[in-house]
Structure formats: C-alpha cells, structure tokens
Amino acid sequence: MDAKSRWKLKVRTSILLLVFILISFVLISRAFHLQVLSSERLKELAKKQHVKSILLPPARGIIFDRNGEKLAVSVSAASVFADPSKIADLKGTAEKVASLLSLDKESVLEKLSQAKSFCWLARKIPLELAERVEQANIYGVFVLKEPKRYYPNGTLASHVLGFVGTDEHGLEGLEKAYDRDLLGAPRKVEWIQDARRKKLYPREVGESDLNDDGHSLILTIDRRIQYLAETQLREAVLEKGARGGIVIIMNPKTGEILALANEPSFDPNNFRLYSTATIRNKAVTDSFDPGSTFKPFTVAGALEEGIVKANDKIYCENGNYVVANRIIHEAKRARHGVLMVKDIIKYSSNIGAAKIAERMGKEKFYHYITKFGFGKKTGIDLPGEATGLLRPVNNWTKVDTATIAFGQGISVTAIQLVTALSALANGGVLMKPFVVKAVLDKAGQPIKEYRPTAIRRVISAETAKGLTEIMKEVVSAEDGTGKKARIENMTVAGKTGTAQKFDFTHGVYSSERVRTLFMGFFPADDPQVAMLVILDEPKRDRWGGVAAAPVFKNIGNQMLSFTPYREDDFLPVREEGVKLVSANETFAPPTEEEESVMPDFRGMTIKEVLKKAKKRGIEVSIRGSGWAVKQEPQAGTPIGDYPYCEVYFEN
C-alpha cells in the first residue's frame, strides 16, 4: 500500500473513531440525563402509571368519661372507590356496583362519568358489603378499610360529644373543639398495578408512628349521672308536654361538668337524620330570660353591699307596684304585704326584688350582674357559646332596673346560670366550667391536664352562707316554692323560676309560653353538686316549683342511691389519692378496715362490679342486666371466710 492509500485509511479511521466517540458521548450524555438529571421526574412519571395513592385519616383518639368508660371510639369500616380512566364500560360498571351495594345506578354512573382518575363510590360501609365488591373483582374498582367514628352509647351525651363528618373532622361538640388533639396525621395508601394494569395489593406508605395517631380525651362527665339526667329530663318533657329541656350538673367547687343534657337528643351515629335545631347544644348556645331564678343574685349584691339584711322588712305593695309608666305584679297574682328579705326569695316576690334593686341603684346592680359572669362567655370548652344579652347600664330605665331584678329584660345561657349558682354554693367564687380533664397520648399518659380555674371572688363567704340559709327555706319550708325539690336525708338550697317568653307579635310577655326552671345545690352546708333544670314551654304545670323541681329531686335521689354519699361526706369528685395516668383514674388503695367489709356495688355496671369484686377476691352472682340496684349482703357487712355477694341489675 502506497503512502497515499495509507493516508486515506488513516483519515477514514480517524473519522470513524471521531464518529464513534461522538455517538458514545451522546449516548452517555443521554444516559446521564435520564438516569441522573431526570431520574426523579421519570420515577414520578412511572409511579403515576403504576401507582395510585390517596390520603386517609387515622383513627381518632378515644373519648372517655371520668371513670374510663368509652363514649366515642373509632372502628374499622370499608370504602369503595374507582379509577374511571381504567374503566372501559362505565355504564356496565355502574350497574354492577349499584346492584352489589344497593345504590342508585344513575348516581354511581354520574360519579364515574365526572371523575378522571379517582372517585369515591361508597364511604364507610359495613365490611360484609365491601366483601361483595371484592369478590366481584370489577376492573377499576377498589376496596380499602378506613376508620369510622362510633358512639357506643347512642344518644348519651350527644350534645357534649358532637360528631364528625365523612372526612373524620369534628363538626360539633368536643369532636370539633378538640379536633386537632383527636385527629392525628393522615396516612397515605398506595394501590399498585403491573404492566398489564392488573391491580395488586395495597400498601401503607411510611412506618407507623404512635405520635401520628390521634390523642384521647378524658372528660369530667360521669356516664352514670349523665344517663340519669337524660332519662329524667326525657320523662319530664313527655309528662309535661314540653317542647324540650336542659339539665346541667356541676361540681361547684371545681367547675367540672358532671352531666349536660338537652332534650330532644340525637344519635351522633346518624346525625344527618336530625334538624340543626335538635343538634344545637342549647345549654351553651341559646339565651333566655331567667325569670325568678335571677332573684338570688339580686339579693346577693344587696347583702354584700350591706344595703339590706336577711331580716329587713320590705313593703310589697299588696301585689301592685307602679314603676314609671308600668305596673309590676306578683306571680299568680299574689298579694304580699310586708315581707322580710329572706321571704322575698322564699315566696319569690317580684315587687320585693324590684325594690331591693332600686335601693342598690342601677350601677351597683349592674356591677354585681357582671361579676356573676352574666353578659360574657363562661369560657367552657364547648363550641358555639353565646354571651347572653345584657344591655349597657347607661341605657337602663327605672323599669329596666326593676324588671331585671326578677329576671325579665336580661337574657342568660344555661351554662351562665349554673356557673353563677355555683358561686353562691362554693362560698362566693366564680369558677370556670370545663368538660375535658386531660388529653392523653397513645400510651395513656397525660400530655395536657386541665385544672379548676377560679375567675374571681364575687361575694364574701359570709354573704354566700347567708344566702344559702335563705335558699334552704325555699325547699325545706312547707310554704316554700321549691318544696317538691326535697331530697331524702339531704339538705337542699334552691330557687324556682318561671320565665315568660316575649311575644314579638304583640310586643308583650306571654302568659302561655313559659320556661320553668329550678336551680339548686346539695348538701346545702357543704355543696358538691349544683344543678339546673329547665323545661321549655310545658303544656301542663307551668310553674318551676311544680314542673322543674321534681326533676331535680329525682336526679338527686338516684345519684344518692348508687353512690354511698353522706351528708358529711358528699364528694363525687375526689382529688385526694387520685393520679391521672391513663383513661382510668387510680384511687388511693382501700384501708384495712374497708377490705374487711362488703363494698357497695350499687350504681355500677356489670363490668365494673366484676372488676371490683375480682380485685377484692369476692365471688359475685349476677342477676339481671343494666345498673346495679341491690345487693345481698348489703354494703358494709363484714366479709366472712367465704366472700360471696348477689348483685341485682335493672335497666
């Protein structure tokens, strides 16, 4: 080969090498771009083709009553969803799904037609229904499990608990107020399909973390007392033909709400079946004229200021008292002459209360009204609380001062009224009402604890004690308006009230449409329970002392029957020896003397009886179902060599 040929070969070889280098560089560059620079983007594209994901809420935390009984839990339910982009025959798929789940075919077809790659077809259905869909193996239709809120006691404490929506977010009650605590971080579920788009098993993304789950609540509510309040209120509403009613039971020394009942009630498991009016927690959202239940607060201010004394005499004008251009009458057209201040409360004199307010003057009267918390929210940890209606004192006329003294021309909420009553009961201190005692983590350890909060001193302990003596006469005296509220072997202080509703059509207070009220506390000399009972528009017995007072009595009597409280040892909320460590409260261990006698099982559930008996080494025989009402041998009987007890239960 001559030199020229060798040169041409060398050039060709160089060109081929250069081309090979260039091609290799392009390929390497492309590979680098795909595998390094664009890897994340391409992974996402591949993931979108093979993986479908949705966010699901975790199980919400449990809501316990003060004794560890479950009031709200999360259970497992099934949901059905579809990927319409993978479904060729939308109409046929809609027919199959509708037939399996007993749904409207057109509704299912509409969901499939409007969605692109995801749509829910049915949420939180029974597991047996979901199994039908899984067994049918419909292409593009999937089933997964997700939590569903469940309220095991049905209507019990429904207005306190509230409810959640389909997305597990709280919509009412404590479920709404403590939504951030109860609802943990959402979980991500992925559905994977192969190259032929065949669905594979789902997987949950990320490792389970206890801190991501919802926290639990332990309440001040006692399920047993709540049950009593609701059943007695419901019976009274039916018996008196009332539109509805409210009962609130509070520990006046701490502000803890032991029970809060509204009638009519609702089942939070099926809240969509009820009107917004039924669901509304009227105990905190609705305002009303308090009527004669306001008189003790009027007298309290006057006593505190030294303007009147309990035995001072006031002329009550024989039932007709002219103030400016208005004539004030007594209830039931009574014609009182001279009454002592204590008898003005006992006989519920409108004119006597009006004259006491006039002696105070509107500025001082207004001052004590606000000190008792009226006109402002109490701060209870329930949503929707109203402030009531208290007009500025500068706008008051002489008639306003007189009528507000006996509870007309001012609007209050039920929670304000029972909170103010508690200030009279506990020695003059206004306490902040609350429903949640603690927030617990997944392990049952408290991460937040709520303690009793004193807002301010309203009146002196001496004034409160004096007013208690006056209110005791309302119940204990044969001619007292509240004698039907008497509780056997228990001193009660209270006040009746009948509040006329304002007729906006005629611009006057109606004599037919009324609210009947009774508020009281016991034991009167060391109050541990304050209670307010309201019946709205009863058709029969339109007076607080006749309609509402017996409800107070019935609840109080039954509370005493299942709890071994004595006049000198009545304490439903014991702070000594209690350490909040989990859903249950751990009490101080029984003494040696207590161990040697039969415990009191009355008022307990079967589960509670068995638990307590096992702890004490007592063999029990269960008779009936429901709540323990009787036992043999009785509580306090010495335990012999063979510890045995028969416990009788009733619903």
Would you mind describing this structure in some detail?
By secondary structure, the protein is α+β, with helices and mostly antiparallel strands. The protein folds into 4 domains: 3-37; 52-218, Penicillin-binding protein 2a (Domain 2) (Alpha-Beta Complex); 223-272 and 283-562, Beta-lactamase (3-Layer(aba) Sandwich); 589-650, Trypsin Inhibitor V, Chain A, CATH 3.30.10. It is 35% helix and 25% strand. It is built from 22 helices and 30 strands. Strands 2, 3, 4, 5, 10, 20 and 21 form a 7-stranded mixed β-sheet that branches. β23 and β24 form a beta hairpin. α9 packs antiparallel against α20 (549-562), α12 packs parallel to α14 (350-360) and α14 (350-360) packs across α16. The longest helix has 35 residues, at 3-37. The chain starts with a helix and ends with a strand. The model is unreliable at 207-211 and 564-593 (pLDDT under 50).
Helix-strand blueprint:
Layout: H1 3-37, H2 39-50, E1 51-56, E2 63-64, E3 70-82, H3 90-101, H4 105-114, E4 119-125, H5 127-136, E5 141-150, H6 158-161, E6 163-164, E7 170-172, H7 173-177, H8 179-182, E8 187-193, E9 199-205, E10 216-219, H9 223-240, E11 244-250, E12 257-263, H10 276-279, H11 282-285, E13 287-288, H12 295-305, E14 313-315, E15 320-323, E16 326-329, E17 338-340, H13 341-346, H14 350-360, H15 362-371, H16 398-405, E18 412-413, H17 414-425, E19 429-431, E20 436-440, E21 446-449, E22 454-457, H18 461-476, E23 493-503, E24 508-522, E25 529-536, H19 544-547, H20 549-562, E26 579-580, E27 585-586, H21 592-595, H22 606-616, E28 619-624, E29 627-632, E30 644-650
Parallel strand pairs: 2-10, 28-30
Antiparallel strand pairs: 1-8, 2-3, 3-4, 3-5, 6-7, 8-9, 10-20, 11-12, 11-25, 13-18, 14-17, 15-16, 19-22, 20-21, 23-24, 24-25, 26-27, 29-30
